[in-house]
Amino acid sequence: MSTLATASTPPDPRPPRAPSGPADADMKTVLSSFCTGVAVITACGSDGRPVGMAVQSFSSVSLDPPLVCFCPARTSATWPRIRAAGAFAVNILAADQEELCRRFAVTGGDKFADVPWRPGAAGAPLLDGVLATVECALEDVLDGGDHLIALGRVTTLTAHRDGAPLLYFRRTYGRLPGSVGRASMSSSMAAARSRSEA
User: Fold this and answer.
1) For the residues 13-32, what does the mean pLDDT come to?
2) Coil, helix or strand at residue 114
3) pTM of structure
């Protein structure tokens, strides 16, 4: 009577996974090393009043179809009003707009007091003085843990002025040295961007 030999399963070379992920403080400390731009997401609430919130999680997602995203916290008091509006605008802040960013980064109060703006095509406020605005229809909302991932389909794009962006790095605001705008972008940078797979 013969027996069939069974191949043994090779050991998994990967280290065992920890039962839980890294501590919140470690996540914040390490990921703050990734420098981001800053934007203010705005919308027109159902009561006709403008709403807005500062984010550093804004990103382009897709060219075809044209999609962008940002990640509001589940605890955000502003996000439900933006979601209900069904449309929003991304206001990309310039280096000289730190105070404007701080205004929209807090909860409560009249964030739009003395802030000049005009309504976009879908009513979302377009803030004066920003580098650019991206107007979007809310496409989808995905689960993102303690945050949500809001996908927007781009409907209108406008570059308003050249200038350096407002940056956020290691929990503080900063700016690029000198003035960086579309006109000063080197041909090598433009070529690298055109080849990017990201």
Assistant:
1) 66
2) coil
3) 0.77
